C-alpha cells in the first residue's frame, strides 16, 4: 500500500516562524540541572510524554543512552513551552505552534533521525515546519493509543511468565528484530547489530523484558520501554505464531498488566490503526482508546539503527 504522509499545508495564521521570533522564543540544550523542571513539565501530560519521562528517569538528561539531545524551548520570561528529544528518534511535547517551529528548525540540522513519533495533530503541525529542510519521509503509519488503569477479571495464571534473564537473549533478539523490521522496514541486525543486542541485554538487566519460555521456545514477550509512576509504556508484544488462538496472549497480558499496575497509574501501548484484530484483542482485555498517533520513518544518512 502506498504510504500516506501528512499533507504539507502552510502553517496556520498566528503560529508561523515570524511569530516565534516576535515572542522571543528560544531553544537550548537541557542539562542535568534542568531535570526536576523537565519532569514537572512532562508530568502535566503523562500519557503523551511517557517515553521522554522514562528516558530522563532512567538515563538523566545528558546521556548517550538517550541516543539524542534534549532541548527546551522557552519564552522571554524563561518559562518552558516545550521539551524535545532530537536524535535517532524524535519526541516532542510543545504547548504552542511557535515552539514546534523552533524545534523543527533544530531538527533539520540532524540528518540521522530514524523516526518521528507523537500525537497525530502535533506531528502533522511539526511536519509543516520541518519537511522543507528536513530528511525525506520513507514510511508513515497511524496508530491508536490504548490505556488501561485497572485490572480486569484475571485469566488463568501463567506460572512461568516473568522478567527475562540473559540466558533468554538469544531467543529475544531475533524476534524483536523481526518485529522492528515489520514495522519500520529496517532490520536492526543489519543496521546496528552490536548496538541492538546491547539495548536488548540492557532491558533484560533492568527487568524490563517479560517472557514466557517453555522447552527453549519463546511463547510470549513484551517490553517495558518506559517506566514512570504515572504510566508504563509497552512495546514489542509478541505471541509465538505456532501458539496463537489458545488464549495465551490474553492470559499473559492480563497477568503482566496486574503486576505493573502495582507501581504505576496506567499502562499504555500503541497499535497500528489498520490492525483491527489487534485493537479488538486489547479492548477485550480492558484497554481503552485514548487518541491517535503518527509515526514517520525517515530516510537516514547513516547506518546507525
Describe this structure in words.
- By secondary structure, this protein is of the alpha+beta class.
- It folds into two domains: 17-142, 3-Layer(aba) Sandwich (Aminopeptidase); 162-265, Gcn5-related N-acetyltransferase (GNAT) (Aminopeptidase), CATH 3.40.630.
- Helix content is 33%, strand content 28%.
- It is built from ten helices and twelve strands.
- Strands 1-2-3-4-5-12-6-11-10-9-8-7 form a twelve-stranded mixed beta sheet, with helices on both faces.
- A hairpin with a 1-residue loop joins β3 and β4.
- The longest helix is centred in the middle third of the chain and has 16 residues, at 169-184.
Shape: globular
- Domain tally: 2
Instruction: Tell me the strand order in the biggest sheet.
Output: 1-2-3-4-5-12-6-11-10-9-8-7
Residue share in β-strands: 25-35%
Distance between the first and last residues' Cα: 24 Å
Could you give a quick summary of the protein structure above?
This protein has 305 residues and is of the alpha+beta class.
Amino acid at each position: 500500500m502506498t504510504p500516506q504522509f501528512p499533507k504539507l499545508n502552510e502553517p496556520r495564521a498566528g503560529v508561523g516562524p515570524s511569530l516565534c521570533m516576535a515572542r522571543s522564543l528560544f531553544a537550548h540544550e537541557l542539562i542535568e540541572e534542568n531535570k526536576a523542571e523537565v519532569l514537572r513539565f512532562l508530568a502535566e501530560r503523562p500519557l503523551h510524554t511517557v517515553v521522554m519521562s522514562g528516558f530522563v528517569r532512567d538515563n538523566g538528561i545528558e546521556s548517550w543512552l538517550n541516543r539524542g539531545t534534549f532541548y527546551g524551548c522557552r519564552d522571554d520570561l524563561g518559562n518552558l513551552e516545550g521539551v524535545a528529544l532530537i536524535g535517532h528518534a524524535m519526541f516532542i511535547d510543545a504547548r504552542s505552534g511557535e515552539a514546534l517551529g523552533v524545534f523543527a528548525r533544530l531538527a533539520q540540522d540532524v540528518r540521522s533521525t530514524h523516526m518521528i513519533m507523537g500525537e497525530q495533530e502535533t506531528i502533522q503541525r511539526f511536519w509543516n515546519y520541518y519537511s522543507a529542510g528536513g530528511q525525506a519521509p520513507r514510511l508513515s503509519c497511524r496508530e491508536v493509543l490504548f490505556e488501561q488503569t485497572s485490572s480486569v477479571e484475571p485469566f488463568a495464571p501463567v506460572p512461568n511468565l516473568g522478567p527475562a534473564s540473559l540466558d533468554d537473549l538469544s531467543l529475544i533478539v531475533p524476534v524483536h528484530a523481526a518485529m522492528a523490521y515489520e514495522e519500520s522496514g529496517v532490520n536492526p541486525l543489519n543496521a546496528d547489530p552490536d548496538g541492538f543486542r546491547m539495548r536488548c541485554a540492557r532491558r533484560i538487566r533492568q527487568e524490563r523484558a517479560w517472557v514466557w519460555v517453555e522447552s527453549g521456545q519463546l511463547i510470549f514477550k513484551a517490553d517495558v520501554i518506559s517506566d514512570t509512576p504515572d504510566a508504563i509504556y509497552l512495546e514489542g508484544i509478541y505471541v509465538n505464531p505456532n501458539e496463537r488462538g489458545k488464549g495465551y496472549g490474553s492470559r499473559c497480558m492480563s497477568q503482566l498488566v496486574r503486576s505493573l499496575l502495582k507501581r504505576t497509574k496506567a499502562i499504555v501501548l500503541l497499535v497500528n490503526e489498520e490492525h483491527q484484530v489487534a485493537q479488538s484483542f486489547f479492548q477485550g482485555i480492558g484497554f481503552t482508546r485514548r487518541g491517535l498517533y503518527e509515526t514517520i520513518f525517515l530516510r537516514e544518512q547513516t547506518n546507525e539503527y
